[in-house]
């Protein structure tokens, strides 16, 4: 590993005078990259990758959600690089990097990124979810470097010796002697080439050269050794214990062994040995039976041929299905409760409550959670019943010889009470002891029952209560003792009689029981004496393997507690073998965790993953039994990483999902369930209680309070579908139907009726198998889904046979429900008369039953039907009656949301009848109902209507702004960024229209916020327009130094988008900013002439080019740049003839005439004016045309008289202008023209020339001559 090589190289540098400091370890940020892959095609899913990248882009500026996610993943977000699909993260502690690397290796980081980056459309698509995975990648070397740097910062960690180290003779006692691969606890010493070390094998302290050390690379090992301190064994002999698989069956000895202790087995080379239990690499011993002599004893692992036994097919921490199933205990007791919850969630009122036309909000799905809230959604902590574990024990006591021990650690072995049930509750054999007999006499016959019971050679089922960790023998075999001291005295006396009569097994079991009671009373030294006596008595006998295992493990636990290294090293190794190698063994002491920790340390020393996994499982099972759930998580995560095949993964994932839920880590809880599905074999099913857990945690992710659930997150769909598979396998039709109804609810909730129809079709088939009522309800649900999907014909195909089948039923309400749905279906088919008849029948049924709500719904449906038929007055009457009935009902979310829809229809009728005040009142009442229940979707619908009302129907800028602001707040709560951007853009326009300094500033704020959103969403055209809008506002606010900056940014954004039409539009609009203003108008020329015109010509957008040249002409005229104006006007006139649009041509030539007039080119001006008149219709069609004729002829008259000095032609023009004015009926204009005529006729010019000279002047254009 490169990071470790770096440590060693730094250590070598230290030896030459360079010291290690934490700052020398690089602590830069870690880059986390992701890509969205298709499993089937084994390549990147392009559309999804782009969607994920755009979602990430939107989160770049508002990254609170991302920060919260990475906080759950135990990392700190530094930044987001959406273009590269990357996150920058960092870590501050070893624990953070340990947790994150664990989640990364478990696949939870990928799953959590799916939660973040994909919307409901993805989660509703079953096939897409199954085919898609997010692959994440990090620089492993860099991650390792950060980890090592954090270790050194902490200054205390664990290392492995990379080579043997001997003490220098000159410094004997100061340095630590090490063997290769020995574990050492290290503390950094600043400024030296040696660190302080403590051997975990010998416990000795001393200095260790840094070059001989290698930090343990796995953070779990560091955490475990720090939190579960203790010694560990170490084999200095070369053996194979760390490299082979777990084995069973028979094996051969490849080396002779002569036992050193009586509990060990003698065997010869080549002898066949039967393995009792399993042999696990990493352990020095296993239990074997000689096929030659039949003896049982411990066998040294290194003396057998590892190729001779039968390896397990797959390395597993579980030796039996019973062990694997022991991890499922958490959910078993909640199965009934969770199934009940699912049925409550799926409960439908569709068979009794009418449905409203066009009302497709979430309340319309078969769902009635308001009446009966599921227990699981209450604020009580999840899994409380799973965690209840009552300890049993006695009063605390301690002998003087144990007073030096840490009593707080030992109190877990003691209990708070000594409960003795009645004899009728007992199943174990009873020891009939006469308590009235004086025990001081110690007569043998008084102890005969006890001794006979306990002196059985070998194991019997009734001994099970003697060995378990719950001390159940106190309440079964020895229930007749009311005081524990009395029982101890009796057992002690029995021990003496057993010893006197040489009753080996009775003696050993009595010593064992006395030792256990001593542990219970926290007298560990006394207990040790009893256990050692029992082992001495057994003298290596293995007939009762349960007793032997319990003895070794209890004694080993005491040795570890009392730190008796010199006395218990061999026993610890053998106790570890008994603990780990025997399948289905029950725990015999609460202190067994110390022995499990010792075994796990052995696995770390030997590098045996299988032993480490086995120890993690044993730790999990024991902690579950002890109710110490908060300590399980690290062991469960490590076991999951070490587990190799689906059954093991499923078992561990079950534990993990429960623990993540308990720690309030909703992303991880859901991810653990989802990963369980992706890693399992095909056909994997999900337990009901895990679906319940997913529903809870997806609600937490939605931010929905537990007591007010109205929505089911689409994120729960994969778990619901997996649970559906489980119900199909188990033929649980009722739960299967409930799951189908919930899935259909989610699909309808997210406007995906096709998915709802799929699941409701299954629900219908299941309902027909379950019963008549279930079939009826499922049929109604399916018909309603077809109506929502606008498939009225298919709804009719279901409802018409259903109505026929209801003729024989006595349920009036059910008939009314069917008639109401039939009315909706017929209305969708356009069959208005039949629809109205069915509504009226439904109304009659509701009136018969006195059901006010159903009456209100039917009247509203009738009102909506007549409204769509343009029968305004009947619609108004029906809807008013419906509103009155709704006002009589008790307030609830469902009825008030229906009232909102009815009030909207009524407002529509009133506004169309110009009853604006009443219509506005209906809108505002509807909004108040939405506000009362904080129902965002209904508020959104009403607010849209109010904005339209105040902008178009009854204009009121202030009110329109107010409701747009509320609409914006709703969009923010719904997290609809696209809607938010559009609304900010609209608000900016509304504020700009007010044209006050304050409103312009507010408009600028809105536009800039919309710009940020559009940039985040990657909507380039909207972003470019927002840049331009901001520039326009800076111009209006006279902040001229910023105007060009924003306009250029807008144009550059458009050019980069490679959309020429957008760039052309923005060039023109940027010029319009100056063209329509009063300052710096000349700047428009640059945008028009250098920007818009070349683009228009390239795109052959002739009309746009014409429009720009017209603006350039007008601009130059206003700036008195007549020569330029003539150029632009001529080009505009030429383009107008190309287009062939007479109106455009008229405008162009009129503007050209104006330019000629301004340049004193009067004959050309006259010709252009006449050209414009030739483009007008031959007869006047409107007052506007008459006014145009009058004005143009009047101007021609003045031009001819004053500039061209032709009185007669001027008179003709004035007469034509007067004729147009007469047709127009403008008396004032007529008087003005007559006055001009009089002046012309009385002028000397009239008398000096006998006739006009118009024939002498050029007529190139108006005469149809040469074109421009």
Automatic annotation (TrEMBL):
Coiled-coil residue windows: none
InterPro entries from the UniProt entry: SH3-like_dom_sf, SH3_domain, SH3TC1/SH3TC2, TPR-like_helical_dom_sf, TPR_rpt
Basic and acidic residues bias (residue ranges): 376-390
SMART domains referenced in this protein's UniProt entry, alphabetically: SH3, TPR
One family name in Pfam for this protein: SH3_2
Chain spans, region Disordered: 367-412, 1246-1268
Keywords: SH3 domain
Domain of life assignment: Eukaryota
Record-annotated SH3 domain positions: 154-218, 246-309
This protein's name: SH3 domain-containing protein
